[in-house]
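Need a sequence for this fold. Nothing fancy.
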């Protein structure tokens, strides 16, 4: 849970200060209840203390991360009892193999670049070359850093997201897949598309999440020249007059080319899924706003979310869902579409006297579109592979993971219930300790399997 909920991205246990403080011995400074509050709502602590901690220019703890109270309690207990082993003064090791997934052959002689980060600040780099069997190794890496790897193969660039050393982990092993290139469209589709609308006094902000799928076994490098030395790989449609386009995930601004109807990406598309998030704003014209979206790729499912209000909104091209959905205490109207075809159009029009001004009447203004996008995106920022996408998971693997997640949640509830029974005197201490230790061992094993 310490790993899965992102604590490890900013904290070590006994390996020195990272983006946040070293948590070794945190139980000597805080009670379990304090630690739970730090996890679930640090902003409440900042408000109560009237100040925020300053960490050499790095941000304080983020807003609440939607950690279940039982999980927060389990993390707090883990930190109260965590023992840090002997720290290797030489640092950690990242090792692995570069494998051509099209041919299933190792790739020798490829240069791999490593970058080190403290927060978002790059602090160092290194290079190595794969051996005859495709293996590589970086050692003597500082514990209080995150790292990313990049390599170029047959005209395509591959990169990992930032990775950190887990508690007690001295060697991080990972395979870096590469693919043979193709200039022929492999039949790219959109598995899921989400559009989230936010209303503000200045107009309408729109966030789009798209999950593309390359069903082939080769990396798509594009066919049509769109700029000097760049080929178009993915196309995106924007409504007329869209402004302030922001690329939040899966798109490198340096790889994006503006087009007449939106923009195009020029980064290669690996087999499997590629998740993209971007946002833009729509200025008001006499209080009226109309958003037109054109479907470019076959789209399996489309979800539109618009904040609930007493004033109406007209949507064409999608089917209304009568039940609103609540996120961050805000109700959203919901429209959905299935099996949309290229050329299909979706129109969103805010109606009623006064247009947007009337729409704002009775609406609680809320400016956390980025957070909602991340919530809908479900933890995309620390996936195992970055820019090019991730390898497709098998359906059986998806089912097994869901079963493990369900079992882990049930174990957490069972441990909490067992604690309550013990505190109420319903169970003797020896049986309580025996049952709890057994449950904890099973919980640790399930968490380990979820990380594989």
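Here you go.
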């Amino acid at each position: 849970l310490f790993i899965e909920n992102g604590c490890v991205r900013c904290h070590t246990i006994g390996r020195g200060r990272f983006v946040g403080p070293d948590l070794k011995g945190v139980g000597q400074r805080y009670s379990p209840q304090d630690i739970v509050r730090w996890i679930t709502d640090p902003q409440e602590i900042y408000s109560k203390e009237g100040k925020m901690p300053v960490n050499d220019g790095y941000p304080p703890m983020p807003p609440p991360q939607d950690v279940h109270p039982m999980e927060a309690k389990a993390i707090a207990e883990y930190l109260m009892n965590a023992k840090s082993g002997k720290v290797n003064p030489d640092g950690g090791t990242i090792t692995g193999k570069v494998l051509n997934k099209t041919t299933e052959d190792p790739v020798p002689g490829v240069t791999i670049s490593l970058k080190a980060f403290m927060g978002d600040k790059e602090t160092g780099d290194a290079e190595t070359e794969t051996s005859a069997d495709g293996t590589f190794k970086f050692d003597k890496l500082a514990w209080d850093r995150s790292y990313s790897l990049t390599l170029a193969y047959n005209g395509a660039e591959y990169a990992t997201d930032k990775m950190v050393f887990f508690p007690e982990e001295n060697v991080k092993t990972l395979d870096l897949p590469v693919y043979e290139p193709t200039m022929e469209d492999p039949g790219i589709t959109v598995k899921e598309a989400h559009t989230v609308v936010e209303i503000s006094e200045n107009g309408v902000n729109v966030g789009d999440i798209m999950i593309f799928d390359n069903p082939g076994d080769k990396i798509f490098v594009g066919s049509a020249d769109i700029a000097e030395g760049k080929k178009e790989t993915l196309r995106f449609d924007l409504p007329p007059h869209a402004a302030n386009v922001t690329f939040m995930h899966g798109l490198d601004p340096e790889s994006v080319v503006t087009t007449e109807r939106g923009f195009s990406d020029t980064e290669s598309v690996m087999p499997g899924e590629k998740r993209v998030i971007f946002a833009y704003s729509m200025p008001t014209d006499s209080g009226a706003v109309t958003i037109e979206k054109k479907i470019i790729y076959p789209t399996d499912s489309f979800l539109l979310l618009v904040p609930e209000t007493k004033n109406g909104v007209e949507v064409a091209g999608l089917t209304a869902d009568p039940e609103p959905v609540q996120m961050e205490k805000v109700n959203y109207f919901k429209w959905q579409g299935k099996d949309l075809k290229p050329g299909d159009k979706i129109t969103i029009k805010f109606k009623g006297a006064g247009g947007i001004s009337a729409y704002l009447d009775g609406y609680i203004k809320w400016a956390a579109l980025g957070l909602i996008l991340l919530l809908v995106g479900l933890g995309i920022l620390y996936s195992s592979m970055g820019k090019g996408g991730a390898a497709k998971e098998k359906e059986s693997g998806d089912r097994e993971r869901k079963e493990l997640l369900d079992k882990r949640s049930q174990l957490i509830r069972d441990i909490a219930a067992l604690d309550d029974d013990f505190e109420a005197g319903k169970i003797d201490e020896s049986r309580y300790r025996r049952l709890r230790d057994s449950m904890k061992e099973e919980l640790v094993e399930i968490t380990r399997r979820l990380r594989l």
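For context: Confidence is low (pLDDT under 50) at residues 352-368, 374-396.
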